[in-house]
Amino acid sequence: MRLSRTAPLPVRGIPLVLFAVSLSGITVATYLDRIIPIPWETAFVLLLILSQGSAVEVRGDNIVLIYGFGILKQRLPLDSINELSLLSRLEYGTILRHFKAYALTWLAIVLWLLFDFLALKAAGNPIRLYMDLFIIMTSLLFFLSLSVSRKHREILKWVVIASSIFMFTYPYQEWGLRALFPAFIFVLLATLIVRAFQNSDFILLIVRGNSYLLSSEKPEEGLKRIQEAIRHA
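^ that's the sequence the OP posted. Answer follows.
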């Protein structure tokens, strides 16, 4: 049985390692290419795709978390689930609080890109310099989404407005009209991120003391189906 519109986040195990390595690798691909000229960015993007959750299924006595379109799977015994809840119902229900390694991966990327942008000047590459700024702003917004509880999600709208204004004005002053199209892309991405976090909820699974996270557009239905599967396990 596949849970409708539900997918795991790469917050533990091999998916988390692939996610951290790929995201970090994409940001340093330019420097790696100077050492060994191979398509680093393509390789890291493929790893990133491999780390992304695609589906959640209940099979027999297990709940199966599927990543990378079925290439990676994590099997969790239903009778080993210690806690099952919606993250929004918890008093301090933020992803940062429960999944520090995942959230701090985003923060580490932001700090590195800030250093690359301010100190290294992206090795003198103007396209890379702008991409640093683009990814910094997108990652900061995503990190904030992971850190703010659903009770305070209204603040994200104001952050999107402020960051969108900045992404139009500062790059325009530095690079002129050619920076406007990427600014539109940023606004689109920022809007999609906020909508995704407002329209979906997260199902928290604790299995043998280890926490897992499922993103779902139908969280109540997903929670009910898992509870039913546990009762019949």
